[in-house]
Amino acid sequence: MAVSKNPISGLNKIFDNRIRLGVMSVLMVNEEVSFNDLKQMLEVTDGNLATHMVTLEENGFIKVHKGFIGRKTNTTYSITKVGQKSFADHLNALENMIKGVR
Amino acid sequence: MAVSKNPISGLNKIFDNRIRLGVMSVLMVNEEVSFNDLKQMLEVTDGNLATHMVTLEENGFIKVHKGFIGRKTNTTYSITKVGQKSFADHLNALENMIKGVR
DNA sequence: TTATTTACTTTGTATTACAAAGTGCTTTTT
DNA sequence: AAAAAGCACTTTGTAATACAAAGTAAATAA
Fold this sequence. Notes:
Number of domains of chain A: 1
Protein name (chains A, B): Transcriptional regulator
Strand content of chain A: 15-25%
Largest sheet of chain A: 3 strands, antiparallel
CATH class of chain A: Mainly Alpha
Oligomer: homodimer
Distance between the termini of chain A: 19 Å
CATH architecture of chain A: Orthogonal Bundle
Strand order of the largest sheet of chain A: 1-3-2
CATH topology of chain A: Arc Repressor Mutant, subunit A
Order of helices and strands of chain A: HEHHEEH
Low-confidence stretches of chain A: none
Radius of gyration of chain A: 16 Å
Largest interface: A-B, 37 and 37 residues
Pfam families (chains A, B): HTH_34
Mean pLDDT of chain A: 94
Shape of chain A: elongated
Domain Winged helix DNA-binding (chains A, B): 19-98
InterPro entries (chains A, B): WH-like_DNA-bd_sf (IPR036388), WH_DNA-bd_dom (IPR027395), WH_DNA-bd_sf (IPR036390)
CATH superfamily of chain A: Winged helix-like DNA-binding domain superfamily/Winged helix DNA-binding domain
Helix content of chain A: 40-55%
Number of strands of chain A: 3
Structural class of chain A: alpha+beta
């Protein structure tokens, strides 16, 4: 058999993790999402979610907004331009891989 | 914002790893692939590939065939029925997630 | 006043991923 | 014939990752 092209070379390592994948896919279609909503959607502990959010932020994929509802803290997240581009690239790589399989 | 459905609940944890994802996608479209071809395609060290192959085998997703070319050992891998079904389910979950994003 | 919520941080553990080196057998090269 | 190299691993060790659980501080709700 001939050796064909590496099917996973276009994937972004940051998005291999399922929780970060989930966060990004939620933020692609929702302008702003709160910490709590993400936590409930993805069914994760808050400590775990917090560390993944830090990873995404450190990579410049998301922005954090620390605000208030009344005088109660309320943190929301949104995707950055870089995040949109990087995630779209990742999804394209995934789709190409899937296309190769079907 | 209302809390929508978990976008990653249908994903299979075994296929989160990029190397296992690559192996499965290669084995979906090729009857039989040798250890060496996989190694070259995915650009991994042999120790690393070997452990991922064991994981896939232990989960019943692939079958190992230890054979010879002449008197030289030759190991090939193929996907199982279970592997096909599980990987197809995973790809469907991925596609649904992508669809939700676009 | 006590309990609860929010959005974390800290701590600790378990799992994972990976490279590198070693192995035993064979073939190829010199 | 001897040395080098390929095959398909296993072993060893390390570093990174993931995660739960508990702790925290400021605020609100009961």
